[in-house]
Amino acid sequence: MQISIDRDKKSLPLYLQIANSLIEQIEAGAYPPGTRLPSEREMSLLLSVQRETVRQALAVLVSEGLITRRHGSGTYVAEPKIERDASRLFPFTRAMQRKGFLPGARVIQLEKIVCSPALANELNLPVSAFVYFIQRLRTVNQEPVVLENAFIPANTFPDIDRFDLSARSLYEVMETEYGSRVTQARQSLEAVVANEFEANLMGIKKGDPLMLERRLTFDQFGRRVEFSKDLFRGDRFRFTTERTPLEPVE
Fold it and tell me: Could you tell me the end-to-end alpha-carbon distance of the chain, in angstroms, rounded to an integer?
């Protein structure tokens, strides 16, 4: 492992110099996913720096999802992040298949509930109307990466719980079985951290970073057909947007 330290850049902390050197090598493909990195002790001896400095540098890479720590085994280069275009609708199954991944789903909860006033407002429903709450754990190559929390109107999709949503796309069921094709969405992104329940399901630690996507979807008739709060693992996804023209100055 060749890690350079530019000691002339006195304004840049030593741990960041080490971190930047490692990042450059990983992004250049010098260390493929799954490569085991030297231990903190080995790196500190190699670089003639304190272990705490190496620990800080590695923490930067962990926070960016470039490396993972395996208890009792060591530190490894992580799998590359999956790019998610935040400006477009994201049918999970189809999008993962196009990227060459094997998508999967496990239904955690599926029940008919009375919607809250806030949810009724989102879906333009009367207060106390019924909705289906569908919680699914989505996987990529059998690794859990997304926790979906979707609410859909029960009057628009009656008895949707009779379909196997662990094997079928929700949007495909909505279109094929009910004639409701999702055509547009209004969505927002927010950085959050995993609680204990979410962490246990997704195979991460409590407090690890997640990206929360709130999404209100509309069908071809303009009906509000889904309100979803999906949690994406921060170490497995990178969100991108298309460039748009610079907003003119008034």
Answer: 53
